[in-house]
């Protein structure tokens, strides 16, 4: 059994220990080193493992085995019986301590104010999340966040102790412990009491700040994303940079950004409508020329044409303009991969554009479909191959 130094002193950054065993790790990932004592925290309870070094060898993972031994994955082997010096990657550890302790305080705030239980906790590389047992309102989030930060700014002491199973049964835990026997208890003075094996800061002030970054519905409840301490500072910096850039681009004050975006959206819609009208007018002029030059294809007047630079939307507008008069079948091909193809027919013509597009997709490779009067697809072929297929299949009718 490995003695867990972090249980008693989460602030411990360096330690000395003896190597109990060392063996190659599976799949050539390094070596598995077991020590008689360690300050390295293994992945557990939603908190990731520590990194650092052992005897100068880099520690890349820490695993808590069922036999109560902690396995350190290191980049090179270390002789059994050797005394080694361990060093924790402190910025990573302290970040995890800020987030994990912040989670205890934030979860307790939701529990105390609104009787909302935390179902699970996950500590990621950039943010952390808690899943709450029900959906919460924006007001509840704001009030819980404020209550949690009040605890931080009061710099309440955080106690860690071990209690027997009998004593544990008398304690008012926020959440019933999942384990039996002796328990490690983390208490935020006067605010929270939880059974937890993770690492925590010794006073709430070291959390710095707890900021809720986002909420979302998740499995009928709420998933809440938050950041604490250094992460909150970095998040604020990114937000500041975005706001600064947005105010410069929009030529507004920070509080005017939403109105500025709405104004741009309205202008964009107006421009889009104007562009569509212009495109339709231009298509009308071009359609007259296409109709004048239409050839006889089978029983119809047909327009088969490649239109470089046109996407599917432009092809549909032009095709619709051509077939607005009686007696025409149209196949237009644009640019892209797959090649956009639009087929259309006049209202008096017995041609199924949707069926033809599907036939072309089957023969040339691709996909598509649509209504008998107008259809589109994307073909895995060149424009010339599509045009050749159109000539053959329409002339044969």
State the main characteristics.
six-stranded mixed beta sheet; 397 residues; 30% strand; alpha+beta; 9 helices; elongated; 21 strands
Which secondary structure elements does this structure contain, and how are they paired or packed?
Layout (H helix, E strand, L loop, with lengths): L2 E2 H4 L5 E11 L6 E5 L1 E2 L13 E3 L2 E8 L5 E5 L8 E6 L1 H25 L3 E6 L4 E5 L5 H16 L4 E6 L1 H4 L14 E6 L3 E4 L14 E9 L2 E8 H22 L6 H36 L2 E3 L2 E7 L5 H11 L5 E6 L5 E7 L7 H12 L1 E5 L3 E6 L3 H13 L2
Parallel strand pairs: 1-4, 17-18
Antiparallel strand pairs: 2-3, 2-8, 3-7, 5-6, 5-8, 6-7, 9-10, 10-15, 11-12, 12-13, 14-15, 16-17, 18-19, 19-21, 20-21
Q: Could you state the oligomeric state of the chains shown?
A: single chain
What proportion of the residues form beta strands (DSSP E)?
Answer: 25-35%
Gap from first CA to last CA: 84 Å
Q: Main β-sheet, in a few words? A: 6 strands, antiparallel, barrel
What structural class do the secondary elements suggest?
alpha+beta
**Total helical segments:** 9
User: Radius of gyration from the CA trace?
Assistant: 34 Å
Fraction of residues in helix: 25-40%
Give the tally of β-strands: 21
Helix/strand order, N-terminal first: EHEEEEEEEHEEHEHEEEEHHEEHEEHEEH
Q: What is the mean predicted local confidence, pLDDT?
A: 94
Overall geometry comes to elongated
Unreliable runs: none
Q: Could you give the order of strands across the largest sheet?
A: 2-3-7-6-5-8
